[in-house]
Amino acid sequence: MWRISTVRTKLSSDASLRSDSRRRSMFMSSWRIRSSFCRRLAKNEAARMAALVEAEKECNLELSEKLKGVTKNWEDVPG
């Protein structure tokens, strides 16, 4: 009787090890998917931020040109 219970315990522990291994492999594969998604998301966000910076630079250049024209007009006013 003792041997049968020992065998059952060993079989159940082997089954739990297999299920732990499955859980671990599922976790690792989902982690890889999430990390690749996060890398892709970070690249997209970096590209979007770079485009915003470039657009802001262009707007600032246009605005500074307009302001130069306004200040020139004020310098021409007698006063």
UniProtKB/TrEMBL annotation:
Name recorded for this polypeptide: PDE4DIP isoform 42
